[in-house]
Design goal:
single chain; three-stranded antiparallel β-sheet; binds zinc ion; binds (4S)-2,6-dioxohexahydropyrimidine-4-carboxylic acid
């Protein structure tokens, strides 16, 4: 069946880059229009390493919301080799920090201050497990000698599986998974391990980066993988398994920093953050599974209430601009100059007596 519309519970984005300043003001309306809440990544320059910094960043996000928006940022802290276990206590007590992000040093954009060896943070991870704070993981090894397409699979064997075994009570989100190996790992893992999936990894394989020439707007990290990997990710996302949920990893970069001899990693999808998933789920004949993936499973994993209210997607094409204003620069979104198959509407809340 191909329904002309689908209504789901108001969704959340469990992995998002909002940046700061003019960039934040440019991108936040797209997310706030679609999602009630988002897990906000801490890889600013300098990174958000303390609860105090996260509180200040949260306030800047709240101040940048469009008028009338009730969007709620869920903050994360950036782990370094020197994060003290006491920071976990401060984060937990704040009520607004919902996880700590592990970036292996050098793995991706603004990760130079990340963790050089996960053994350094074992005391922090132990405290997180005790206090029920979630670990979010960028899962790639950084060794030069490891092929860029193998870095996620190697990370599972070398880092993530041993880490999960050393900390059996730690709840872990394996972020933006890109491989069949990662799907298999999550499926066979102990309780308390989940994964987010991006729209680009559900819709595209690595050929997209090289179609007719080099296409920097399809470059993100972890990089797009093979067609069998994409198929495994789509199967996991649409399977109804609550361990797989929505995280766009929308990561804006100015056009000139991507169309560059050393282009930045990251794809911008917040303008279509739900619509692109609807296309992927529709192609798999699984629109009835979108509610779990976008509305229920992430909230349940993070032990947060599910959102009230609904949104409706209509099978009506919407044009995507060639670019958006991004401070003094331009931002090229996913599907730039093309069309989305679905149009989104937030439904009015039912009248209460
Ligand atoms: O492609 C990416 N862009 N991957 C990341 O892990 C970071 C992100 C960014 O911040 O631009
Ligand atoms: Zn990210």
């Amino acid at each position: 069946m191909n329904p002309d519309s689908i209504t789901i519970g108001r969704p959340d984005d469990w992995h998002l880059h909002l940046r700061d300043g003019a960039a934040l003001r440019a991108v936040l309306p797209h997310t706030a229009e679609r999602f009630a809440r988002a897990i906000v990544m801490p890889n600013l320059k300098p990174p958000v390493t303390t609860t105090v910094l996260a509180g200040e960043y949260r306030q800047r996000i709240l101040d940048a919301r469009p008028d009338g928006s009730d969007f709620e940022p869920l903050m994360t802290l950036y782990l370094t080799d020197r994060t003290p276990p006491a920071e976990v206590e401060r984060a937990r007590a704040s009520g607004f920090v919902h996880g700590f992000k592990l970036y292996p040093a050098g793995a991706t954009t603004h990760s130079d201050a990340g963790v050089t060896d996960v053994r350094h943070i074992d005391p922090v991870l132990a405290r997180m497990a005790e206090l029920g704070v979630v670990l979010q993981v960028h899962g790639e090894v950084t060794e030069e000698s490891v092929d860029v397409f193998d870095r996620e699979a190697r990370f599972i064997d070398d880092v993530l599986a041993p880490l999960a075994a050393r900390h059996p009570a730690l709840r872990i989100v394996f972020e933006h998974i890109t491989t069949r190996a990662a799907v298999d790992f999550v499926r066979s893992a102990r309780d308390g391990i989940a994964a987010t999936l991006t729209p680009q990894h559900l819709l595209h394989n690595r050929n997209a980066m090289f179609a007719g020439g080099i296409r920097p707007h399809f470059y993100c990290l972890p990089v797009l993988k093979t067609e069998p990997d994409r198929a495994a990710l789509l199967e996991a996302a649409t399977s109804g398994d609550p361990r797989f949920f929505l995280g766009t990893d929308s990561a804006p970069h100015a056009r000139h920093t991507k169309e560059n001899s050393c282009g930045c990693a990251g794809m911008y999808s917040a303008h279509a953050g739900l619509e692109l998933y609807a296309e992927a789920f529709d192609a798999a004949g699984a629109l009835d599974r979108l509610d779990g993936f976008a509305h229920r499973f992430g909230a349940d994993f993070y032990r947060l209430p599910r959102n009230a209210g609904t949104v409706t997607l209509w099978r009506r094409p919407t044009a995507v601009p060639a670019s958006f204003v991004f401070g003094d620069a331009e931002l090229v979104p996913m599907r730039a100059g093309g069309q989305l198959a679905w149009t989104l509407r937030r439904d009015p809340m039912p009248a209460t007596r």
